[in-house]
Amino acid sequence: MKGIDPSFKADPTIASQIDSKHNEFANDSSAHNSGQPIHKNNIDSTTGHHKSKFITDCQTQHKNSLNCIEEHYENKSVCEPFFEAYKKCRREEHQRKLEMNAKLSGGGQGGETCVIM
User: Fold this and answer.
1) 47-78 residues labelled b (16+ CB within 10 A) or e (exposed)
2) Are 93 and 56 in contact (CB under 8 A)?
3) 8 A C-beta contact, residue 109 and residue 102
4) Which is nearest to 115 in space by CA: 52, 39, 33?
5) Can you give the pLDDT at residue 1?
6) What CA–CA distances, in Å, run from 18 to 5, 12, 14, 15, 32?
7) Using one digit for the tens of pLDDT, what is the confidence trace for 24-78?
8) What is the spatial distance between Cα 59 and Cα 89, in angstroms, rounded to a whole number?
9) pTM exceeds 0.85 for this model
10) How far apart are CA 65 and CA 83, in angstroms?
11) Mapped to the 3 state alphabet, what secondary structure does the chain carry?
């Protein structure tokens, strides 16, 4: 960096004081998502923590697609059945989430009223 003395050494004590002043939740992990809705079916049964938004019921299809691409990287058209299986699984999963959200929000069967996940 321009203009900084090369003999400068960062002081971790001062850095933590600055961080705590600028990040009021730095040491409170329970307050990080304070106010966020909790979906009971979004809790991992083994850890008790929230699942990542990227975790899907279609992990097998996703893994098969990636494995196929690795094996047939020159000719990805060979993997088309795996891609279609993954897309179909994701569409069905999405439809189930819409129906669940509609049910939880008191909406109709078509998902016309929806809670954001």
Assistant:
1) eeeeeeeeebebeebeebbeebeeeeeeeeee
2) yes
3) yes
4) 39
5) 46
6) 21, 10, 6, 5, 19
7) 555 555 555 565 665 666 676 766 666 666 677 898 999 999 999 999 988 989 9
8) 10
9) no
10) 6
11) CCCCCCCCCCCHHHHHHHHHHHCCCCCCHHHCCCCCCCCHHHECCCCCCECCCCCCCCHHHHHHHHHHHHHCCCCHHHHHHHHHHHHHHHHHHHHHHHHHHHHHHCCCCCCCCCCCC
| 114 neighbors 98 (Cβ within 8 angstroms) | yes
Q: Which amino acid is at 104?
A: L
User: Comparing C-alpha atoms, which of 26, 49, 24 is closest to residue 38?
Assistant: 49
Amino acid at 81: P
**Residue pLDDT, tens place only, 70-109:** 999 889 899 999 999 999 999 999 999 899 888 888 765 5
